[in-house]
Design goal:
Distance between the termini: 17 Å
Protein name: Discoidin domain-containing protein
CATH topology of the largest domain: Jelly Rolls
Largest sheet: 8 strands, antiparallel
Shape: globular
Organism: Lactiplantibacillus paraplantarum
Structural class: mainly beta
Radius of gyration: 20 Å
Helix content: under 10%
Strand content: 35-45%
Order of helices and strands: EEEEEEEEEEHEEEEEEEEE
Oligomer: single chain
CATH superfamily of the largest domain: Galactose-binding domain-like
Number of helices: 1
Number of domains: 2
Length: 276
């Protein structure tokens, strides 16, 4: 697989600079077979800059790590091009893309990687827009624009849940909506048999957070699985017969009686197999 990796400025032009000790300014662009890496010793990202990945075949599994602060991620790319925008909503400016040194990596995933039993919802590289890189999280809570409460926080692998707000306590907030729903789009059919939910539990100084005592998981064929929930500050697990689905929706969240006003989800995990 040919992989081309290039760094673009806000105008979509290829950024240029010095890779290391060389004295010649060069474009930050490279092409490789099954692997593309750009290492830079001095470059500053600007909000709105982009990382563009091009592959010669669509519907591929890739390992990506676009910044040292973001965990290596196995994504499914449904198209031949993926454009990742640096902090369009300033969500990551606290820690990510802040260094002047960079090692940006994209490589083809092995068959063993793809076929492993794993959390298929994990994607810390997810962005608010659907960029064709899956899994992708979205929500009907459109009025919640604060990046510390957007849907992407629920699949980023950050599990700190004893507080709320900015990093490292991002969560999916429901804006107190009774009909709040979170959707995970896998981008293709997968087979899952277990879902884990980690509810935010901010009780450091006062009962800031409440909880739900029930929710519903809905699959792409319309079938549903009721989930009994409680006020646990650890993962709550629901197991079921293997289900083939391209999406997973968490909805119909029922607040516990006399529960505190705010409710949020720190993380959702969905375990199973990719179906290739």
């Amino acid at each position: 697989m040919k992989i081309t990796l290039q760094l673009l400025n806000q105008e979509g032009q290829v950024k240029t600079g010095l890779f290391s000790y060389d004295e010649t300014v060069k474009p930050f662009k490279t092409t490789g077979d099954d692997l593309a890496v750009i290492g830079i010793k001095k470059m500053t990202w600007q909000a709105g800059d982009k990382i563009q990945v091009d592959i010669d075949q669509a519907n591929q599994y890739l390992w990506v790590q676009l910044d040292e602060t973001i965990a290596p991620t196995l994504i499914y790319l449904s198209q031949r091009q993926w454009i990742y925008t640096i902090a369009p909503d300033k969500r990551q400016l606290d820690i990510a893309f802040a260094s002047q040194r960079h090692c940006i990596m994209v490589r083809k995933a092995s068959t063993a990687d793809v076929n492993a039993y794993r959390n298929l919802a994990f994607n810390p590289h997810d962005q608010v827009a659907d960029t064709g890189a899956y899994p992708h999280a979205s929500s009907n809570v459109a009025e919640e624009t604060n990046p510390t409460f957007i849907a992407q926080n629920a699949i980023d692998g950050k599990l700190a849940n004893i507080s709320h707000g900015s990093y490292p306590y991002g969560s999916w907030g429901i804006h107190e909506r009774a009909d709040a729903a979170l959707t995970i789009d896998f981008g293709r059919p997968v087979e899952i048999n277990m879902v884990k939910l980690l509810v935010r539990s901010d009780h450091l100084e006062r009962p800031h957070d409440g909880y739900w005592n029930q929710g519903t998981l809905e699959f792409s064929d319309g079938s549903q699985q009721v989930v009994v929930m409680d006020d646990s500050d650890t993962f709550q697990t629901v197991r079921f017969a293997p289900k083939v689905t391209s999406t997973l929706i968490l909805k119909d969240l029922v607040p516990a009686e006399d529960s505190a006003r705010f409710k949020a989800l720190t993380q959702i995990e969905a375990y199973g197999y990719a179906r290739n």
